[in-house]
Amino acid sequence: MTVKSILVTTVATLENHAANRGEKLLGNASSVKRTPDGKVYVSGQMQRHVLFSAIERLNESDPERGETYVSNGDGISTKIETDLRSDLGGFLDTNLGDYSGRRTAPLSATPAVSLQESKVGQDLLVRLKMSGKDAEKKQALALNEFSEKDEMVMNFHLDIGAVGAVKTFTYEGEAHVATNYVRKIDDAEHARRIRLFLDATRSMVDYANQARNAVTGEPHRVLIVLDPGMSRKAMQYFSSDETRQQRILAELEARGATYFLGDDNDGNGRSVYQAYTAALDALKDGKLYRPEFA
What we know:
By secondary structure, the protein is α+β, with helices and mostly antiparallel strands. The chain has helices at residues 44-60, 84-89, 187-200, 242-254, 272-285, and strands at residues 2-3, 5-17, 21-24, 29-32, 41-42, 91-92, 102-103, 107-109, 112-114, 120-127, 140-159, 165-172, 175-183, 221-227, 258-263, 287-288.
């Protein structure tokens, strides 16, 4: 089987967290983001930030990384040969003025949303008065919202053929007459970047730098799909009932996809660690799609 895309959907427990704060609703109260039906969520932008932070950490410890790096989110380059955020996350450079200034991201992520309605509390923060000139200031108080415990569903998808390649277009007048793919990296680096993506989805920890918000998004349930096509339907797996889950898996099997289920709560099946290990091994042995047509 030739793998054209990878889908990863996970469930992680976030406890006593404010993984993604929103706007201040009333006065000096920092609110937790939540949907209209009361479920706490983490924005897709934050999910991508945490994922690229995990990719950066994994890449830095990889002896095969060469000159590759992950650029800062506020300074993305257009060098997909070396910049992993540029390659996997895309970019838009309005100064170039043509298609070469725009790259659609091969990597995508959904917001992480709680499976059930969340219970949100408030934490009172007090700024201690100090001696000297600070002693004359008024006592500073602030309220921070936090969510007690959420089972968060997280989804990630990767278009394998677009990794390390640039799609170009040929026009004659106003007519589009040809499409070409230009490879910017070799097959070994292509495979390495795909493994980095998959490994990073189980290393979601950088939701905040503050010690008071030390949150982990590491999963205790996972479904990994190595797909010969392009489908995101399996993202609905953990939010579906048992019948629908069975139909989703049956459809994957019928289409020739390979999937790996991991559940740390089930002593009879694969653990999350075992599911990731099996999926990474399958990637090493399988064929990864790279477009060759012009």
